[in-house]
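Hallway conversation turned thread

IA: we were arguing at lunch whether anyone had actually written out MET7A protein end to end. Turns out nobody had. So, for the record, here is the sequence (246 residues) and right after it the structure tokens. Reply here if something looks off.
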Amino acid sequence: MREASILFFRACLALLAMPIYLLSFLGIWEPFCRKVFFPFFLEKLSAVHERKTKKQKQELFRNLPDFASPSGELKLLEIGTGCGANFQYYPPGCKVTCTDINPNFQQSLLRSMNKNQHVHYESFLIAAGEDLHQVPSGSVDAVIGTLVLCSVNSVKGTLKEVLRVLRPGGAFYFLEHVAADHSSWKYFWQQICHPTWKLVFAGCCLTREIWKNLEQANFSELNLQHISVALPWTPIQPHIIGYAVK
């Protein structure tokens, strides 16, 4: 009965989003989404998400300086940089390499860089999380990824690359929306929205249990907490936050 209800409501939602499905069928939606819609949407969502998670992020990134190299230098790699929402939390003088698979965030990214000149920006690489070959192995002290593992092609492959580029003792910081408890109405809602949400929002998946991928990766230490972010009327309230040490 539950499965039939999910299929019915999925069909209703798809009907409402029929123009987007049609544009996708014609090959128009994806390039428009990557170049125009998603950068615009992400900047607006990031602003709301920042207001809701500011205290959690401040606490999360508080110990970033502890992972500086013995020389005192702190090299950060951010995957899925997007609009640069995390720059404000980085310690003064740290060196940041930004990566994103989508190169169409230039305007909002430049605005964030101009607001956060306490950070040294080394380079911007167009790269997927699963393929960071431009970054040498063991070359960074910390990797940061927020709201990115929901849309990579392979969470497992991305975490493998994170471990490769981190030096021994380095850390991976994360904040991700995840699947709700399977017995909850929130998960029912996520299952209904999933196909249309993924199409509209550039491959973003609502039902990933990312904490399981982190638990199965070869980190020596995992500090992970499940939290709920107050984003009413959206299917992305359940989150995980924390850091893992190589």
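OS: looked through it. The chain has a mean pLDDT of 93.
IA: good, adding that to the notes. DSSP finds seven helices and seven strands in the chain.
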